[in-house]
From TrEMBL:
Entry-linked PANTHER family: FAD_NAD(P)-BINDING DOMAIN-CONTAINING PROTEIN-RELATED (PTHR42877:SF4), L-ORNITHINE N(5)-MONOOXYGENASE-RELATED (PTHR42877)
Pfam families listed in its UniProt record: FMO-like
Keywords: FAD, Flavoprotein, Oxidoreductase
Domain of life: Bacteria
Listed name of the protein: FAD-dependent oxidoreductase
The organism of origin for this protein: Hydrogenophaga borbori
Example of a GO MF term: NADP binding
Length: 656
């Protein structure tokens, strides 16, 4: 899909249009029916903001919010009685709002916002208020830089390069535009979207709810599903690009191949391959990398791979001409990508062989593939800020998420789990597996992981994966792959599996940050040689000796069980704009992280990771690098990262 494929459905091409709701014309009964589907805590908060009615924040309606287990407590754990009362009050409030002619939502006073948060989240929530204003105070874009380059005459002529135009690159571009900076976005593909442009495999969709997996400054109200499919997400990004007006700054089909710091010019020499194959060289004072983390396909070097005469396709490099119909297909891998591909294709193929090394833990998500309930869609489209409160509420539920369940208790003695909480989570997931494979004990044995939950990414399941494995034309192969021949995959037990098409859902070169970009910093230092396969950064953003370079999705920023990558990349971009403000306002030309805070920060991160299931467990995962260090993962809560990146610390940098 490209922008040209989009039907011209948008009559208002402004960012504000994302938040716009329709006036209510529904009957009392229709309103009551919609409220039946509502996420009640978020609806009460949105209506309290809209109507300022204290009855909506009564103590008896306060969600107890039990900690997350394998499941999330519906309605924040409210009793049936409290839910009924909340529905009645919400319906009445909406009817009154309709009868008053749907007036504009008032800007809430700080005291009133405080009260809502006290109700929804907790007392003593000061650490949350900035974030709340960022998220729900609609008329005011709290993430905006709050400065303009014209404020600093000495900064005139400053140029910034952004590499990549996925979620993070689009965010960076938008914030740079707000600051009035001269910027260029380089995109290697022929369209924006990053992984959501590249991944078009059958069944591709989100496995993080899209309220969280979307941009704070572009809160779409008309998602059709909670875990949207790839076309809807790409379409969202195309809309964001159009509505932010950043399109003219984006150079597609242009891959940046190298960055070289030019000390004399205090700028990066950026070399990019242009659509006609020639090299384009240009200097930029600052560079923001937004190259993603999970986008350079890893295809294992299976012996004999070159001799295989059939088709081989990687999940992230799916081609429209790949036809699975009637073929003998091998699906290698059982990670998040395979989990979506397998159930989508098995009914079309003559035979599907799933090659599994380690089974994943599955999180029960019965509504995974469902459309959003009509009532929720109606509320999103008619109640100002409801979507933003749903997002904030989900953020709060997920801010610690299942972190407490993946923390090592050194005193805990168990061959698999690492703490009592981890064992409770394991038992919940085991119960689901036992139920799903009750009729197939042979498959149950193979589908049961022998490592603690949280050591690898847990996958959402609504029953489709087990259903696929049980199908007559599907075989689960658990022996290792020894080699490939002309038309078969051979396993270590001597078996030969004849196939026509191999789908490698074998993941990405996740440990090689910024691969394959060549980055030469101060004194000719090569960044990849400096890292030597063990990537680190200060806040996941900067590396000493590589001034004026800011990363998004950098080392140790990946969230495992508590949040969304979009949230962290927005933190990184907003932090970068704070850094730029400091540098430009003070008339500096370079900003370089000091080695001491970099080392201290990384020691702190390593300490946090060391006690987490993903570091403790021996099992393989993309969270660890070749040396076994968890170099991809952020080990704390999301609020901690938000607060950490909320301020640029000049004392941690050399400014010149
Ligand atoms: P992945 O999680 O790295 O899984 C790769 C799979 O390939 C694993 O099952 C792995 O086995 C297997 N594998 C790797 N090398 C192999 C070999 N030599 N022989 C046999 N099997 C091999 O990759 P992914 O599924 O593409 O997912 C990567 C990440 O992308 C996810 O964790 C997620 O963060 C993101 N993602 C998100 C979505 C979404 O939001 N909807 C969808 C897809 C991906 P082992 O388990 O034994 O290592």
């Amino acid at each position: 899909m490209t922008e040209g494929d989009l039907p011209p459905t948008l009559d208002d091409d402004t960012l504000a249009a994302f938040d716009r709701v329709q006036p209510i014309a529904a009957s009392d009964a229709e309103i009551e029916a919609a409220v039946r589907d509502a996420d009640l805590p978020a609806l009460l908060a949105a209506l309290a903001m809209l109507t300022q009615d204290p009855a909506l924040l009564a103590d008896e309606l306060k969600p107890p919010s039990p900690s997350m287990t394998a499941r999330i407590a519906p309605q924040g754990g409210l009793s049936a009685e409290a839910q009924a009362k909340a529905r009645t009050l919400a319906t009445q409030a909406l009817i009154r709002y309709r009868d008053a002619g749907c007036p504009e939502a008032p800007t809430p006073s700080p005291e009133w916002l405080d009260r809502i948060v006290q109700f929804l989240i907790r007392d003593g929530h000061e650490d949350l208020m900035d974030l709340l204003r960022h998220e729900v105070n609609v008329p005011d874009d709290r993430g905006a830089p709050g400065w303009h380059v014209s404020d600093f005459p000495q900064a005139a002529g400053t140029k910034v390069a952004v590499i990549g135009s996925g979620f993070a690159g689009i965010t960076a571009a938008y914030r740079l535009k707000q600051a009035g900076l001269d910027f260029t976005v380089f995109e290697k593909n022929r369209e924006i979207g990053g992984v959501w442009w590249e991944n078009t495999y059958p069944g591709c969709r989100l496995d993080t709810p899209n309220f969280a997996y979307s941009l704070s400054f572009a809160q779409k109200q008309d998602w059709t599903q909670q875990f949207s499919q790839q076309p809807e997400i790409l379409r969202y990004l195309l809309d964001v690009v159009r509505r932010t007006g950043i399109r003219p700054h984006i150079r597609v089909n242009t891959e940046v191949e190298s960055l070289e710091f030019d000390e004399d010019q205090a700028a990066w020499k950026v070399t990019a391959r242009t659509p006609d194959g020639s090299a384009h060289v240009e200097h930029f004072h600052f560079v923001i990398t937004a190259m993603g983390l999970l986008n350079r396909p890893h295809i294992p070097d299976f012996p004999g791979l070159a001799s295989f005469k059939g088709e081989v396709v990687h999940s992230a490099a799916w081609r429209p001409d790949v036809n699975v119909k009637g073929k003998r297909v091998a699906l290698i891998g059982t990670g998040a990508s395979a989990f979506q591909i397998g159930p989508e294709i098995y009914a079309q193929v003559s035979r599907l062989s799933v090659f599994q090394r380690n089974p994943p833990w599955m999180l029960p998500t019965p509504t995974y593939h469902d459309d959003l309930k009509p009532g929720i869609r109606w509320l999103l489209g008619h109640v100002p800020s409801y979507g933003r409160w749903v997002r904030f509420w989900q953020f709060w539920i997920g801010v610690e998420g299942r972190l407490h369940l993946v923390e090592l208790d050194p005193a805990w003695q168990h061959p698999v789990s690492i703490s009592a909480g981890n064992e409770a989570l394991r038992q919940e997931c085991l119960a689901m597996l036992q139920q799903q494979f009750a009729d197939r004990p042979d498959l149950l044995a193979h589908a049961t992981p022998d490592y603690p939950p949280g050591a690898k990414r847990m996958l959402r399941d609504n029953g489709t994966w087990p259903q696929m494995l049980k199908a007559g034309n599907v075989g689960l192969v658990t022996q290792g792959i020894s080699h490939l021949s002309e038309n078969a995959i051979h396993t270590t037990d001597g078996q030969r599996h004849e196939v026509d098409l191999i789908i490698c859902a074998t993941g990405f070169k996740a440990a090689d940050f910024l691969y394959p970009l060549k980055v030469t910093g101060r004194a000719g230092q090569d960044l990849h040689r400096h890292w030597d396969g063990d990537c680190r950064a200060y806040l996941g953003i900067s590396v000493p000796g590589f001034p004026n370079l800011f990363m998004t999705s950098g080392p140790n920023t990946g969230v495992v069980v508590n949040g969304s990558a979009i949230f962290s990349s927005e933190c990184q971009v907003e932090y970068t704009l704070r850094a730029l403000r400091h540098v430009l306002s003070q008339g500096h030309r370079t900003v370089d992280c000091r080695p001491e805070p970099y080392a201290q920060y990384n020691a702190w991160i390593d300490q946090g990771n060391e006690t987490k299931a993903w570091a403790v467990a021996k099992t393989s995962s993309w969270y660890k690098n070749k040396s076994g260090r968890a170099a991809q993962t952020w080990p704390f809560g999301m609020l901690e990262y938000w607060n950490l990146t909320a301020r640029f610390r000049p004392e941690d940098h050399v400014l010149a």
